[in-house]
Write a structure and sequence with these properties.
This protein has about 150 residues and is α/β, with parallel strands linked by helices. Helix content is about 25%, strand content about 20%.
């Protein structure tokens, strides 16, 4: 008998224990790693799919959130001031392609991230201050009818 879950999920790769955070580490969540290990869930990182590297400069969104970035009204900026908006959007679209290819309808994403954050992300000042809004991937997935939650809701 197949013990894999009946529905497929997308999960932020860092939550599955993959060392892909900006620091080169992970944000392991044992429950989420188990979902990937037993099959049926895929772990992807939009920032690595954007070819931003690991480790990399910290990124935050200024003048809005991921929705605004998708609409050309906000920018994703690295700590050293480099505009990586187009890169982050490209990485999010690569994840969306996989989600569509595998018929995924739900995602568990890393909270507060400029890519994956849901409801709250860092405010663009690099001062660890949060603001309301979604990351680029979270916004793109929502626009495409994908249910998104954070690891705190698992």
């Amino acid at each position: 008998m197949d013990s894999r879950p009946s529905k497929r999920l997308l999960v932020s790769a860092c939550l599955a224990g993959i060392n892909c955070t900006f620091r080169g580490k992970n944000n392991l969540n044992e429950k989420i790693k188990e979902l990937v290990d037993i099959g049926g869930s895929i772990a992807l990182c939009p920032e690595t799919l954007a070819l931003l590297g690991v480790p990399r400069e910290r990124i935050e969104i200024i003048d809005g959130d991921g929705n605004d970035a998708l609409d050309g009204k906000a920018k994703a900026i690295s700590r050293n001031g480099k505009d990586v908006t187009k890169d982050l959007i490209a990485g999010a679209h690569r994840v969306l392609e996989a989600v569509k290819r595998y018929g995924i309808r739900e995602a568990i994403l890393k909270s507060k991230s400029p890519a994956c954050g849901i409801g709250k992300i860092y405010d663009g000042t690099f001062s660890n201050t949060l603001k309301n809004g979604d990351g680029v991937l979270a916004a793109l997935l929502k626009r495409n009818g994908i249910k998104v939650i954070t690891e705190k809701e698992v």
